[in-house]
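Good day; I would like, with your permission, to put a structural problem before you. What I wish to show you is a protein chain and, alongside it, a tokenised description of its three-dimensional fold. Thank you for your consideration; the sequence and its tokens are set out here:
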Amino acid sequence: MTYQFLHRPRRLRSNPIIRSLVEENYLKTSDFVLPVFISEEEKPSEVLSMPGVFRWPISNLCEQIKDWHQKGLKAFALFPKISPELKNEGGNEILNPNSLVCRAAAAIKQLNLDVVLIADLALDPYTTHGQDGIVDSKGEVDNDSTVEILAKASIVYANAGIDWVAPSDMMDGRIKIIREALERNSFHNTGIISYSAKFSSSYYGPFRSAIGSSMDSVIIDKSTYQLNPANLLEAQRELALDAEEGADILMVKPAEPFLDVIKQARSQSNLPIAAYQVSGEYSRIMAANQLGWLDWKSCALESLVGIKRAGANIIFSYFADRLAKDL
């Protein structure tokens, strides 16, 4: 029997051409920032917990940037794994104008490619304790002294050719202080991508291993400064404060577990919204692929288009280089 239905939504799905015509959200290479791990090692080394992701020494990094650029990727976020002897409790290596990040930025800029370089502003790669800030005598992360060193680091990075600094520490008031420091030093065009709603998540483990900030058999508790995953209203407040303090782009991290926060950020602000598809999101897909349970590419694309559908303009993703040719 054939019914005379007035509405048959399947007509819009009947063939690939029609599906393409009515597609509401789609991914393009210009949506992506590729996170790049850099190291002092002599040759590239794969991050064991992130199959297909490598730490790149500067000697190999430039050729890799050229390759990624040819694929259409033009924005890169640098994350260093520094030598243990350069770490201390205060994370002072972040202020070294000849640090790994600064040398990498200078080398990339010499390529004269149209790329944007983003530097993470946090102390966890540089501290012996793995916290994102300076730990006081009570064992607590000191907000204001951490903000002071991050503001100084923003000037070091801007001098090195970094285009955007990305404070990922979640200290109170740091966007205002960093913006004022950049303005005082005439870095008016150096932008701030603020990790505004960064949650105290269980998805960061592979990243901490990649940069060497994890502690053997010790769980680093960052819940006194990163957001409670249960709290949406608190995230809204953080997003509003960072916008008020001068952030150019607001970020939600992690991405897929917090799609509602991305949607809320999009609805409450006229600033661009970034989302970070973090290491744990990448690794769970790749691990399931290795076990033959899921296809990594289709799952990655589905996850990423969901992040964009939620309202993200910019997506930090470790899949970006692998998927660029398919976008």
Q: What stands out?
A: Residues 26-326 form a domain with the TIM Barrel fold (CATH 3.20.20.70). The longest helix spans residues 143-159. The chain has one domain: 26-326.
